[in-house]
Structure formats: C-alpha cells, structure tokens
Amino acid sequence: MSAFYDTLETRPPEEREAALLAALPGQIAHAQKHSPAFADILAGVDAASITSRAALAQLPVTRKYQLLERQQAQRSTNPFGGFATHGFGPAMPRVFASPGPIYEPEGQRKDYWRMARAIYAAGFRSGELIHNCFSYHFVPAGAMMENGAHAIGCSVFPGGTGQTEQQVQAMAELQPAGYIGTPSFLKLILEKAQAMGTPLPSLRKALLSAEAFPPSLQQWMQERGVTGYQCYATADLGLIAYETEARQGLVVDEGVIVEIVRPGTGDPVPEGEVGELVITTLNTDYPLIRFGTGDLSAILPGHCPTGRTNVRIKGWLGRADQTTKVRGMFVQPGQVIEVAKRFPQIQRVRLVITGAMANDQMTLHVETLETAPGLVQLLQDTVREVTKLRCEVQFHHPGRLPNDGKVIEDARSYD
Predict the structure, then answer these.
(1) Inter-residue contact 250 to 129 (CB < 8 Å)
(2) Could you read off the pLDDT of 384-410 as tens digits, one per residue?
(3) How far apart (Å, rounded) are the C-alpha atoms in residues 23 and 27?
(4) Which residues contact 63 (CB under 8 A, 6 or more apart)?
(5) What is the C-alpha radius of gyration for the chain, rounded to an integer number of angstroms?
(6) 28: closest CA among 292, 236, 288?
(7) Average pLDDT over every residue of 270-275
(8) Number of C-alpha atoms within 13 angstroms, CB side, residue 104?
(9) Residue 263 confidence (pLDDT)
(10) Strand 299-300 to strand 94-98: parallel, antiparallel, or no bridges (unpaired)?
(11) CA 133, CA 151: separation in Å to the nearest integer?
C-alpha cells in the first residue's frame, strides 16, 4: 500500500507551483463575482493579472477580526458576512459556529476540509475504525475529521468530548485502530484506562490537533503503544499542514497557497524568517483570499525526507497579534513597520516595551549597518508621529535581533 495519499504529494515542486498559480486567477475572479465581501475587498483588481506570488502579495490581507466584523454588521441579512458563495440549502448541508461567534459553512464536496491527507499520513487506512474525540457540538472539528476519515474508507465512532469512562469502554469493546482529537484528551483517556485496569490493545495511532504536542508527550504516548502525529487546521480554512513520520516540520496541504508575512502587514518575509501565516484557499464555496490566520510560523528549507515535495512549515510558533497598550495608547505592529518602511537602511526592527505599571518605556531596536548622525532623532520623531508616543532607539548589527516573528515585545513587569 502506498505511503502517500496521492501522486500530488510527490510531484515536482515546479509543477505544483505552476498548478497553484494557474488556478489563482480563476479563484479570485470567482470570489469577486460570487462573494459580496471579496467583490468589495478586491474591487478594481484584475484577476487575470494575479499569476505570481509577487502579484498575490499586492492584494490586501483579510484577518479574522475583519471577517467577524463583516458577519456582525450583516447578521440579519447575511450571517457569513458576504464571504460564502452559497446561501442555505442543498449546497450548504451544515453550518457551524466558532467563538465570536463566527459562522462557517460546509459545502457538499467529499472531504470538504481536505483532512484525509493528514489522516492518511498519520497511518490510518481504509477498512479501519477511528475513534473521533473532536467536538460535534457547534464547532466543525468533529465533522472535519469524520469527512476526511470517510474519504479514505474508514468508519468513525463519534466519541466527542468528555465521559472518559465511556470512551474507554467503547474503545475496549469496538477495538478502534486509533484516535483523533486533542493530545490532552487522549492522555486523559489513557490514564483513565490504566486506572480502570482496562487494556486498549488496538489503539496504536493518533492524529492530534488544536493543542501543542511536545516531544515529551509524544514519548509518553509512545511508551503506551500509541504513535501520534499532529496537523494544523482551522475552521475557516480546513487543513493547512500535517506531520509525517519524519517529524521534521509540517508539510503544507496541496489545496492551499501559503505565505509568511511580517506581522501587521501583508509583506512576505524572507524564507526562514518567522512571520504570520497567510493562506489562500482554492475552495470555491468559501474562497478566502490572503486570509491572515494570526498564527506565527516559518518556512523550513528543503523537502520532507519521506519524499513529499511540498513546502514545510515549522508548525505553530505563537500568535501574530502583538497590539499593545502603552501609556493608554494602542501600539500596533503595522505602525512599527510603517516607521521602518520610511528608512530603507533598516533591515529589521523590534519595539520593546519595558518598565513597571504606569511607567512604560519604549525602545526601538533597529538592525542596520548605517548609523549616520541624526538617524536616532529622525527615528524618534517618526515613531512619535506615527504612534503619538516617545521612544528611545538602539542600533544593532544585522542578525542580532531574535527571529521569532515579534515586532512588538511587551517586557514590562506587572508584579
């Protein structure tokens, strides 16, 4: 049996990139025509001209809070804020809600969220039973995984959340091949099974998501006979990336275009630098174009040792929203980047907030080879113009600032 879900995973990278970029103009034109939100967001954009990553990078980033704002503004007339291309009915079998609330539509296509690829990479195969412990209530997580499992020919027990004793009993009696859910809940189930004296000999693999899955927990589960792999997905976008047996980053899904941008902007960062994940999907029912996830990650060099040739990301490295209140004023990453853009000699910046409560101090740390007289004053004046706040300036040689995606660091003491 093949180690790969399909041949898309091993195609030459140039072929993949050409296919994604060839599909992009049509997806943008479709969004402009059928999604009122993107008709507005992308007004005046010539879809036929968006045939490269450079062209894509010129389009605005839509972030989750903007999606929520549009939904809230149109709640009585269009609960999806104009982003969905279908209304209620046969083309939209189910509707889900995430915190906000943000409402997400489900389309008719098989494996609508494209989760089958991640489930397959975790070792599940046709003819097996999967114990699915993601929630089926309100949120789409349970359905996302179930649809993917069905796509590869698996049966699913909808365990949902809670009731660990009943979960253990069902596992002991149905003998599933593996588990899908959060790593913390699987740990609780395994601990409960041990406390009950109930062996779970069939439980040998797991696909885990929605939480961190550190090496220590991987080892803990491995010692109990369960090999777990993680994936990264969201309710808006579906699968973004998944882990393989190589355990070297997460391989990007075949149905999305991934960009890493500087937080607070839409500007792509150099490969390897940490930034915000921005995703464009090829989903025609919910065509999110340059959707900012708010999550930080970075591109890994090279390809997966398993033979999969798509780009890899490091995984989840934190949140990109670093908006901070200083002396009663909000300071946003975009403002810091705006300051940096006015000085071409600057390579990277980081605004660090220090001090104790009610005694905030701002220092703009700047990577540059040029420290001409007067540059400090120019930077201070520009920061004050943009943020209405004063700051100090410190220069650094290129490469000295941390590569963690942070544009604003809140290092204040709240003791």
Answers:
(1) no
(2) 999 888 999 999 999 999 988 889 998
(3) 6
(4) 291, 292, 294
(5) 23
(6) 288
(7) 93
(8) 23
(9) 87
(10) unpaired
(11) 18
